[in-house]
Design a protein that fits this description.
The chain is 28% helix and 21% strand. With 418 residues, it is α/β, with parallel strands linked by helices.
Length: 418
C-alpha cells in the first residue's frame, strides 16, 4: 500500500529541518526523507579544520539559535554538525533516515507519486530541500594527468595527512579552494594554487566583522529581483575569507610571499604539462577591488548613520607577480596530488517536472515553482544573498510554509466542492 502524506520534504539538512519545524507548528502532516543521516553533509563533506565563515550569532533556525559563549566566533565542523543535528531533536522532526528518493512524478489524480528505496509514497505537496550542490565537478582533461597523481574533489579533502607526501595542486580559489590551500600550507605542504575570478572580503574592518556591518546595512536582505546583478547572481562564486583561529582575511598575495605558487586560469593539460592563462595579476586585482568596494559601502553607511567607529588604513597589495607562469611540467614539479575545487553541478534527474532551465537549474520565485505544490528550499540566492546562511534559510522556510498552508486550504476547498 502507498502511504500518503500532505507534504513530503526531501532532504534532512538545515533547509529540510527548517520547513519541517514550520509544518510541525502549523499542524501539517509531513515526513522528511533523508538519503543518508540528518545533517551528514556538515560532517562528511568538510575537511578536519573546517570552520564556518559566518559568525555564530548569525546561526539561527526557526525556534532555535546559537546559545554558546562565543557569539562572535566561528563554529568548527563538529560544532556545526552538532548544532544542526541537535535542532532536529528539539521538535522531534519526523525524519526517515536512509531513504533515497528515486523519482517524483505528478500524480494523475493530483499531488505527487514519490518512489523511494523503502517503497512508494503519495504526497499532496513536495518540498525539495537537497540544496544546489550535488555532483562534484572535475574537468575531463583531468583524465590526462599522470596516473601516479592522486586526484580528489574538494568535498573529499580531509587533511594534508590524508594526501600522499609531496607538493599539492589546488585548482580553484573560491571559499573552499582558498581555505584548503591555506590548510595545506599551514601543515607544511608546498602548495600550487590555480586562481579564477573569485572575489574576496576582509574579515574585519573599522572595529567589526564585515558580516556584522553588512547585516546592519541590510545587504543580506536585498532580494535577487532588486539586485543589480539579477538572476545571474545565483551563479556567482562566494567571497573567500576564513573563520579559522577566530577569523582572518585570506590574502593570496601574502600566501605568495610565504611560498605558495600562484597561477592564472587553468586552460589545458598537454603531454603532462599544465597550461595557464596569464590572468593571475588581473584576478588578484579584481578580488581586491571587490574587497575595497565593500569597505567603501561600509564607510558610506557609517557616515550616513552617524556611527562612531575607528578609522582604518586601506589595504595595500603586499605582492605582485613579476612574471606569470603559463606552463608547469608535472613530472618535474614534485606535485603528487590535485584537489579540484571548481564547484558542483545540480542533479535533479529523479524529479520529473517541467520546472528546469536549459542547464538543469530549477526555475522558481522564492522557491515557488510553476507546478502547484512543488517547492524548492535551501538554494543559493533563493531569495536573497542571505538565503545561503542559516538565518536566511529560516526566513525562506517561513515564507514557503505559508504558501504550503494556503495551497492545502485551496485543495481542501476544491475537494469539498467536488
Amino acid at each position: 500500500m502507498t502511504t500518503h502524506h500532505d507534504v513530503v520534504v526531501i532532504g534532512g539538512g538545515q533547509a529540510g529541518l527548517s520547513i519541517s519545524w514550520h509544518l510541525t507548528h502549523r499542524g501539517i502532516d509531513h515526513v522528511v526523507l533523508e538519503r543518508d543521516s540528518i545533517a551528514h553533509e556538515w560532517r562528511d563533506s568538510r575537511w578536519d579544520n573546517f570552520t564556518l565563515v559566518t559568525p555564530n550569532w548569525q546561526c539561527s533556525l526557526p525556534g532555535y539559535s546559537y546559545s554558546g559563549g562565543d557569539p562572535d566566533g566561528f563554529m568548527t565542523r563538529e560544532q556545526t554538525y552538532d548544532f544542526v543535528r541537535g535542532y532536529a531533536d528539539t521538535f522531534a522532526a519526523p525524519v526517515r533516515e536512509g531513504v533515497t528518493v528515486t523519482s517524483v512524478h505528478q500524480s494523475a489524480d493530483g499531488g505527487f507519486d514519490v518512489d523511494t528505496t523503502q517503497g512508494p509514497l503519495h504526497a499532496g505537496q513536495v518540498v525539495v530541500a537537497t540544496g544546489g550542490y550535488h555532483t562534484p565537478v572535475i574537468p575531463r582533461f583531468a583524465e590526462r594527468l599522470p596516473g601516479s597523481i592522486e586526484q580528489i574533489h574538494s568535498s573529499q579533502y580531509r587533511s594534508a595527512e590524508s594526501l600522499p607526501d609531496g607538493e599539492v595542486l589546488v585548482v580553484g580559489n573560491g571559499q573552499s579552494g582558498a581555505q584548503i590551500a591555506e590548510d595545506l600550507m599551514l601543515s607544511g605542504r608546498t602548495v600550487h594554487l590555480v586562481t579564477g575570478g573569485a572575489p574576496r572580503v576582509a574579515r574585519f574592518y573599522r572595529g567589526r566583522d564585515c558580516v556584522a556591518w553588512l547585516h546592519d546595512m541590510g545587504t543580506y536582505d536585498v532580494s535577487i529581483a532588486d539586485h543589480p546583478g539579477g538572476l545571474a547572481k545565483r551563479e556567482n562564486t562566494n567571497h573567500y575569507v576564513t573563520g579559522r583561529d577566530g577569523g582572518r582575511d585570506i590574502d593570496l598575495r601574502a600566501f605568495a610571499l610565504q611560498g605558495m605558487n600562484l597561477y592564472g586560469r587553468l586552460l589545458e593539460v598537454v603531454d603532462g604539462t599544465l597550461q595557464f592563462a596569464p590572468t593571475l595579476a588581473s584576478s588578484l586585482d579584481a578580488a581586491d577591488v571587490v574587497a575595497e568596494s565593500i569597505k567603501d559601502a561600509i564607510d558610506a553607511y557609517i557616515e550616513r548613520a552617524g556611527i562612531v567607529a575607528p578609522t582604518e588604513a586601506r589595504y595595500v597589495p603586499l605582492w605582485r607577480p613579476e612574471r606569470e607562469t603559463t606552463s608547469l611540467d608535472l613530472a618535474s614539479s614534485g606535485i603528487t596530488s590535485v584537489v579540484w575545487s571548481i564547484g558542483f553541478r545540480t542533479d535533479y534527474r529523479w524529479l520529473h517536472a517541467g520546472v528546469f532551465d536549459g542547464e538543469g537549474h530549477p526555475c522558481h520565485n522564492r522557491g515557488v515553482t510553476a507546478v502547484p505544490g512543488l517547492f524548492f528550499l535551501g538554494l543559493p540566492w533563493q531569495h536573497t544573498w542571505g538565503s545561503g546562511r542559516f538565518a536566511g534559510v529560516a526566513r525562506d522556510a517561513e515564507y514557503l510554509s505559508e504558501r504550503i498552508e494556503c495551497e492545502a486550504t485551496v485543495r481542501q476547498s476544491v475537494s469539498s466542492l467536488a
